[in-house]
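The pair is quoted verbatim underneath.

:::
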Amino acid sequence: MSGCGRGGPNGRSVLTSPRRSSRRAHQRPDFVIVGSGPNGASPHLEQTDRVIGAGDPVVVDIGGPAPSGYFSDSTRTYCVGSPGDPEFATVHDIVRTAQQKAFETARAGVSAAAVDQAARTVIEQAGYGPYFITRTGHGIGLEVHEEPYIVRGDDRLLSPGMAFSIEPGIYLPGRFGVRIEDIVLIGADGSPVRLNHSPTRWELP
């Protein structure tokens, strides 16, 4: 996407490469969402033909079942060249910090709600609380969305073998969104294990 600008690709055309990559490790790519610029501020975007331009933040969310039947889910937020919005890099750093804090909080015996609160506190203290409009995560396994739900009010205690997403986000209407998502497993010793290992920085390779 580094060459995007006037006449660049749109969200639908960018889907091709992630779908091809996803097929190599998955039974099928169940979903690929590409939200550029202001479209990234919609957490559950219906794909559009918006042209991706230089300076645009781009949210890329990919998931599907592996041959084993277990689902994956991962989101990264990039930027095409230098950010066009001067607030983007700051917001991206806040979301990365919130995701890391939630990861460090997740362990056996801790409630799902406490993991949500760990991420939410970082974002609220940075002044973006009203723009964190989703839950922090969801369980994942033979279904892409299942219990436990990493959200305020879910007091289920985490235990070894549970797998779930941690995906805090900040969504600024009319401007851009940032979401970073990894799947986390509670290991046999009760500590969290991150199952996604792609870089979370916003700069494109």
Summary: The CA atoms of residues 41 and 173 lie 6 Å apart.
